[in-house]
Specification:
By secondary structure, this protein is mainly alpha-helical. 74% of the residues lie in helices and 0% in strands. The protein has four helices and no strands. The termini are far apart.
Length: 118
């Protein structure tokens, strides 16, 4: 995908440079356009010839990443049920403990303020 986009962009540059080279009478402009054409064609060859190298590097990186990521074991149905039962049991016990706790109410007791004159 990136290679085809790059080649398309370089083709567009080459076509514009050819138009400039053909339609100008100034030798400097023509020389610059032809130099640009040479450079863009060289860049296209570099991109196309390095596609295999880039693919190899990407494949190696993906393979290394696959090896580095450990797989997480998934619990069996029995293990899932045991975990759910334990959670339910813990929830029931915590509800009973909350219900059995005595309710106390604090009463405000007036305290003499030392700074207050009586």
């Amino acid at each position: 995908m990136a290679v085809s986009k790059s080649c398309a962009a370089l083709d567009s540059i080459t076509a514009t440079a050819w138009n400039i080279a053909k339609n100008t009478d100034d030798d400097r402009v023509k020389l610059n356009a032809l130099t640009l054409i040479k450079e863009t064609e060289k860049d296209k060859i570099d991109i196309v010839s390095n596609v295999n190298l880039v693919d190899q590097v990407i494949d190696a990186a993906e393979q290394k990443q696959r090896v580095a990521i450990p797989t997480i074991p998934t619990p069996s149905e029995e293990e899932e049920q045991a975990i759910a039962d334990e959670y339910i049991r813990d929830t029931k016990y915590s509800e009973k403990e909350e219900d059995s706790a005595p309710v106390t109410r604090a009463r405000a007791i007036p305290v003499d303020d030392p700074g207050e004159d009586r």
